[in-house]
Amino acid sequence: MSIVRPYGDTTGDGMVQLSFTLPIPHDKRAEGAAIQLANKMGMDPAMLVHAKPMGDGFTFFVVYGKVAHLVDTDKVQVVERDFPLLSAKEVNAAIKRGLRRRLNVVGACIGTDAHTVGIDAILNLKGIAGEKGLEYYSELSVTNMGAQVSVPDLVETARERKADAVLVSQVVTQRDAHLQNTRAMSAAFREALPAGKRPLLIVGGPRFDELMAPELGVDRIFSRGTTPREVASYLVHALAGGSK
Amino acid sequence: MAGKLDLDAAVVARARALAARAGQPVVDLARSHTTVSVERAVLRLAGVTGADPDGIPWVNRLVDAVRADVGLGHGVAVPVFHAMETAGVEDVTVLAQKAAAGSVRFTMPARPAKARQRARRATAAGLKTIDRRRAERDRLIKRFGDPKQRPWIYLIVATGDIYEDIPQAQAAARAGADVIAVIRSTGQSLLDYVPEGATREGFAGTYATQENFRLMRAALDETSKEVGRYVRLTNYASGLCMPEIATLAGLQRLDMMLNDSMYGILFRDINPIRTFVDQRFSRQIHARAGIIINTGEDNYLTTADAVDAAHTVTVSQLMNEYFAHEAGLADWQLGLGHAFEINPDLPDSFRMELAHALLARELFPDAPLKWMPPTKHMTGDVFRGNLLDGFFNLAGALTGQGILLVGMMTEAVVTPWISDRDIALQNVRYVLNGAGNLHEDFTPGPFIRGRANQVLSEAIDLLERIVDDGMLNAIADGTFGIMKRPADRGKGLDGVARQDEDYYNPVTEGLA
After folding, report:
1. Same-domain status, A172 and A203
2. Left (φ > 0), alpha (ψ -120 to 50) or beta: where does B6 sit?
3. Does A55 fall in a domain?
4. B482 Cβ partners below 8 Å, 6+ apart?
5. CA-to-CA distance for B296 and B455, rounded, in angstroms?
6. Does residue B370 have an active-site annotation?
7. Which residues in B192-350 belong to E strands, given as ranges?
8. For chain B, what is the radius of gyration of the CA atoms?
9. Where in the sequence is the domain holding A67, given as residue range(s)?
10. Quick check: B412 and A206 CB within 8 A?
11. Which of chain B's residues have a Cβ under 8 Å away from the Cβ of A126?
């Protein structure tokens, strides 16, 4: 079953919904324009189910319709988890065995980003969704630098704490700030430290594309929905010789 | 609406007394220190305007020059106005330019009376402008009227470009917004100067500048006339330039300002002493200007758990109230903050929200209260988000909140689209139309009463600990919002100075 199409209420019906705004006043012509857009997007037939004027020159539309496209799930490219998901106990045991010392993690929100919710969810003892953060792992030594940390401060702290891994969270994405900040960060680490001494660089945030790691100069990208346990398991996989 | 929770008046009085005891040492600290930004605000009121060719305001250049010669501890007013006389300069901005070029030296006169008098006269002119703006607001409210309903509907615009913000703000007001907030560019809070002029570039927001304030206020005056109600304008007196931004807000007739007593410390890592000194001055200005402050308790709940940390919100509200009263603000000016941030998967989450919201309402019956929408549990599932926002609106109506920040279903996804705002306002209108008066029929039962009383008693326990530990230690230990912020660290500490014996500030004198 590698070929699928959207499902409304019958297998193979191809039904999707779409909402958007056109910068024109609401009238018959505007509704026609909305259907034309839906048709061009591959929805055929397209049913205009809702049209509402907003302010002076805008109209909001909801369209339901059928698409003919097929998707082949075998041809989808994603970063599959290439490491085993471990429990906290297994993570701690693997670090003890592999490193014979605690694994040092430094985390921060860099640039002007003040949204610590991501880094806190991963690092704080409190964690997220019932899963404890990295501070809970006895074999992880965690430094959370908080928000609006400058890249030089991050490099300095990573050096001072002999960080094995640096975790950076980026939530604000306006004008691609998350990409620019990440590039600046990885460049600074490359400049400051020789390849063998460089900590593992990990970035996370809801709008990252996990496939962009090489392009951004980092070792791993974690996207929306990542849990502390996944990050801990990855750290062990990459730094402490896995869980064997 | 008071009296639904059976709060014990003696317990409430005890909470207030503890807040006063916890806050008193901080007020003493604020009264005995000054900062570069307080001094720059004084100079702005004395008439220094504009910036050098690099965009550094002349107030910054002047304060830096005075500080280099005589330090900050005397206040800048006396050395500046003494130098005006000795250098034979009539215009303070010209003096700033000369000082920046190195052609003026600053000294403390042996007899400061004359310089004090001149400084007093100059800053009195600035305060008079603020008074005129306030009277102007009163006139416009009389002419156009206040919003017909409570809560007032508060909407955010944030494009980064003031000329793009203006039509969006006007459209939002026509669609029903009573209060427009222009979100600041991310990172402005950490700039130790206020940018100049109209700005068209910003990150996730638009810079707060005097000219941007003026442009937006003028545009909303037009819209107020058109829609037949006075549309209020909000900005942010927070960060390193809090006193100056408060001053500019007063000079340009902004109506509300975000102004929390601890936000900068906890969330921007600004030095605690810097924050408390700046905050006291900015609140004195807000009091004079008739500006409603909005405090930032909602932020605690985005980092800490909204159930476990509910009492920290109450404690912070009590502290904010104490500091605000001390600075001269009246109850009607206290938009104390709180938020709808309990995990919606918890059983009885909505009942707990009602308990917390009602507790704030009954503790502060004469304050407008700023009710903030869910953000932490908004996931990108916009359909569920819209439902949560509906419940948030209902809780606001049911508990008599004064200012309702409209939640967007696309929170955590994109900065709001025009359609997101329209859907959000439709949500608010439905709830207020359909259930705006439901509070008349709503009597909480034992669950909500019990929860509210429990939060209040936890707040009292925490206040007792803060009184024992000292406020600064409590902040250093991470009592609020989990972040640990020691008093000898944080940004902006180098801009703080202890007041000398002969410290003189004509503005605080004029405001007292």
Report:
1. yes
2. left
3. yes
4. A120, A124, A126, B303, B304
5. 18
6. yes
7. 232-236, 256-258, 292-294, 334-335, 337-339
8. 23
9. 3-73
10. yes
11. 304-305, 482
Write the residue in A112, A116, A175 that is nearest to B303 by C-beta.
A116
Distance CA B193, CA B189 (A): 9
Please indicate, yes or no, whether residues A127 and A159 belong to a single structural domain of this protein: yes
Quote ipTM for the complex.
0.83
A147 at interface of B, judged by CB pairs closer than 8 A? yes
> Three-state SS for B434?
helix
Mutate to test the interface with A, among B161, B419, B421, B489 (most CBs of A within 10 A): B419
Provide the number of structural domains found in chain A: 2
* pLDDT of A175: 74
Contact map slice: A 176-205 vs B, CB within 8 A: 177
Statement to judge: residues A235 and A143 lie in one domain: yes
Point out the residue among A55, A172, A174 whose CB comes nearest to the CB of B174: A55
What separation in angstroms does the CA of B237 have from each of B276, B329, B403, B414, B444?
13, 15, 18, 25, 37
What residue in B sits closest to A205 (Cα-Cα)?
B412
Q: What is the mean pLDDT of residues B195-209?
A: 90
Establish if A80 belongs to a structural domain.
no
A113 touches chain B (CB under 8 A): yes
Q: Return mean pLDDT, chain B.
A: 94
CA B186 to chain A, closest CA, distance in angstroms equals 6
Q: Kindly determine whether residue A148 and residue B268, on different chains, have CB atoms separated by under 8 Å.
A: yes
Domain assignment present for A111: yes
Block residue for tokens 């006007």: B170
Which of B412, B415, B418 faces A54 most closely, judged by CB atoms?
Answer: B418
Query: Is the Cβ pair B418, A58 closer than 8 Å?
Result: yes
Only one residue has tokens 């430290």, namely: A193
Cβ <8 Å between B302 and A117: yes
Instruction: Using CA coordinates, name the residue in chain A closest to B176.
Output: A55
Cα A3 to Cα A12: distance, rounded to the nearest angstrom:
10
What is the nearest CA distance from B383 to chain A, expressed in angstroms?
A: 12
Entry pTM? 0.85
**Same domain, residue pair A206 and A100:** yes
- Last residue in a domain, options A38, A73, A108: A73
Indicate yes or no: CB of A177 within 8 angstroms of CB of B268.
no
Residues of A in contact with B419 (CB under 8 A): 19-21, 54, 58, 60
> Which chain A residues have a beta carbon less than 8 Å from that of B269?
146-148
3-state secondary structure of B399: coil
Mind listing the pLDDT tens digit for each residue in B93-142?
Answer: 999 999 999 999 999 999 999 999 999 999 999 999 999 999 999 999 99
Radius of gyration of chain A (CA): 23
Last residue of a domain, one of A31, A50, A73: A73
Residues A65 and A137 in one domain: no
Same domain, A134 and A66: no
**pLDDT tens per residue across all 244 residues of chain A:** 689 999 999 999 999 999 999 999 999 999 999 999 999 999 999 999 999 999 878 999 999 999 999 999 999 888 788 899 999 899 999 999 999 999 999 999 888 666 777 887 888 776 676 678 888 898 999 888 887 788 999 999 999 999 999 999 988 777 788 898 999 999 999 999 888 889 999 999 988 888 899 999 999 999 888 889 999 999 999 998 754 4
A216 within a domain of the structure (yes/no)? yes
Catalytic residues of A: 126
Q: What CATH number is associated with residue A143?
A: 3.40.50.280
Residue A104 and residue A55 share a domain: no
CB-based contact B190 A175, cutoff 8 Å: no
Q: What is the CATH number of the domain that holds A12?
A: 3.30.30.60
